[in-house]
Amino acid sequence: MLRRCIASALAQTQTCEIIVVDHGSSDDTPQVVGSFGDQVRYLRRDQDNGVHFAWVDGVVSAQCEFVHINFDDDYLEPTYIEKCMGLMAPDVGLVFSKVSLVDEVSGKVEFVLFDRIGSSGLYAASVFMNKQITGLVSPGATIIRRKDILNALFVGKVPFARHEYRGVGPDWLMTSMVTLDYPKIGFINEPLAIFSSHAGSITTSALQDVEKKRALRRAYQESRKFYTLLWMVKFLRLDLLANVALGLFRLKAKMASSLNRIFPRKPLNK
């Protein structure tokens, strides 16, 4: 699958930098990547700290302004980069395409994602969020700015989250947060990204198990709640209230410091 993934990146009609990030693999990944020579840059870490650390590793190393994150079991049609970048503009937060979900065994298209959005073009950011609130537009379908990934990607748990599931959630939040800073998104009405459906997929295995499916849903819901808090801060101007609260905290800290000089505190008992 990795060989197919890399080959699809090399086949793009618009030249792109290709970085393969390998965190702790125990298979023949180094040999597969090595067979492509200097066409691919290879980053390997012996310890696996999770998918989001791998993403950060690759994104920090990237030389380009725009990034597409591709999972090793997925691949792209040759015109994916060219057509998506054709819609990118200063006021566009991200561009994504329709996706074909293909059964790895039979090679048949099980279904096509995002086939009810409309024709190719620019849309209000709310169109993207309408999909995100009820589901997920995977990073594997998107092109996004490097700086926006680094600003929005949580490598630990999502703030205030009580539920986690194998790193799920920050992927949703990473793309959603650009809608707070950009008014538009781009959409390509062609299935230019292909996602593989197979038993080893985290998402596929979770959907076949009731408990895993519930855990997956809870993890994404935590990200949606945090996004809602950010939206409220921005659009309801709660930052003004935060400034008032910060002023009170500072006053409290100064008073506590002054009192401590007069009445030194004793350490807490262990």
Concise account of the structure shown:
By secondary structure, the chain is of the alpha+beta class. The protein has helices spanning 2-10, 29-34, 51-61, 80-85, 125-134, 146-152, 170-176, 202-207, 210-235, 238-262; strands spanning 19-23, 41-45, 66-67, 75-76, 92-103, 109-113, 121-124, 142-145, 184-197.
Notes on the protein architecture:
The chain has 270 residues and is α+β, with helices and mostly antiparallel strands. It has a single domain, classed as Spore Coat Polysaccharide Biosynthesis Protein SpsA, Chain A. The chain has ten helices and nine strands. It has helices at 2-10, 29-34, 51-61, 80-85, 125-134, 146-152, 170-176, 202-207, 210-235, 238-262, and strands at 19-23, 41-45, 66-67, 75-76, 92-103, 109-113, 121-124, 142-145, 184-197. Strands 3, 4, 5, 6, 7, 8 and 9 form a seven-stranded mixed beta sheet that branches. Strand 5 and strand 6 form a beta hairpin.
How are the SSEs placed, and which strands pair?
Elements lengths: L1 H9 L8 E5 L5 H6 L6 E5 L5 H11 L4 E2 L7 E2 L3 H6 L6 E12 L5 E5 L7 E4 H10 L7 E4 H7 L17 H7 L7 E14 L4 H6 L2 H26 L2 H25 L8
Parallel strand pairs: 1-2, 5-9
Antiparallel strand pairs: 3-8, 4-9, 5-6, 5-8, 7-9
Keywords:
270 residues; alpha+beta; Spore Coat Polysaccharide Biosynthesis Protein SpsA, Chain A; 10 helices
